[in-house]
Amino acid sequence: MSGGRRKEEPPQPHLANGAPKSSAWSKALRSDAAWEDKDEFLDVIYWFRQIIAVVLGVIWGVVPLKGFVGIAVFCLINAGILYLYFSSFQQIDEEDYGGTWELTKEGFMTSFALFMVVWIIFYTAIHYD
Amino acid sequence: MSTMFADTLLIVFISVCTALLAEGITWVLVYRTDKYKRLKAEVEKQSKKLEKKKETITESAGRQQKKKIERQEEKLKNNNRDLSMVRMKSMFAIGFCFTALMGMFNSIFDGRVVAKLPFTPLSYIQGLSHRNLLGEDYTDCSFIFLYILCTMSIRQNIQKMLGLAPSRAATKQAGGFLGPPNPAGKFS
User: Any idea where the domains of chain A sit in the sequence?
Assistant: First the structure.
């Protein structure tokens, strides 16, 4: 997570509140990228959350990790990983996005529902099929 | 593959289909109309403009500036209301459709355990997760609980993938009226 020099990029066309374009994903994987379009960065946060939800749902279902401990650990990991991503890796100014809480909230409920669905599916398939 | 797991996958598939159906109905009745496109563009433009103005306004801003912002907010509220009215047509159609579909699915899956929950739900959730199921094993999952979870996750993601979700600025500014359009309605 190096603090490289912020690179200026020409603004890329972006579908507001939708799927980020490929240029957004290449920026997302680069440390300390410049985000002129705030919606674009929020979309990246949103989709990262969904990916984490699917991955953790699969792991939790396979292991299996059961009970509310599973839910609590998911919430911590989901919030924690994204917090490290936007504060340390991307080094964005949270105030530009309405604060840490707004960034933490972005896509959280949908990712929680997705995690539950994937967790239930894999748990049912592997341990009760 | 056991019957229970087949049911689990079937419910996920039903949820995907109903989400696509809901968006399809909304597209036919709402999204493709000129009125909706015009209103949506107007609301997004106004929301972004208003947000930028609010960010730059200071404590010492003149009364005239504040009045200007209030007028813009009022205009935006009216446009949001009109937008909500346009969407209402599809909401009725979807509501009607889905009431019929839910009635059908509820009778098909009545009494059937469609999945096993890896946790025991809280007592006030059990009314939903263990609905119409026999026995005291509350890790048995009923159709409606799984369907609701699927819809909450799948429909929102489908809307975002298709670019049909309203912009964040518009959702924020619309918060005071009918509330932001809820793409993840439980029973649609």
Answer: 37-90+101-127
Q: Which of B119, B149, B184 comes nearest A117 by C-beta?
A: B149
Residues A45 and A39: beta-carbon distance below 8 Å: no
Bond preceding residue A11 cis, omega within 30 of 0: no
Does A123 contact B160 at a Cβ distance shorter than 8 Å? Answer: no
| pLDDT tens digit sequence for A42-76 | 999 999 999 999 999 999 999 999 999 999 999 99
pTM: 0.81
Q: Which amino acid is at A37?
A: D
Q: Which of residues 38 through 67 in chain A touch B, CB cutoff 8 A?
A: 39, 42-43, 46, 50, 53, 60-61, 64-67
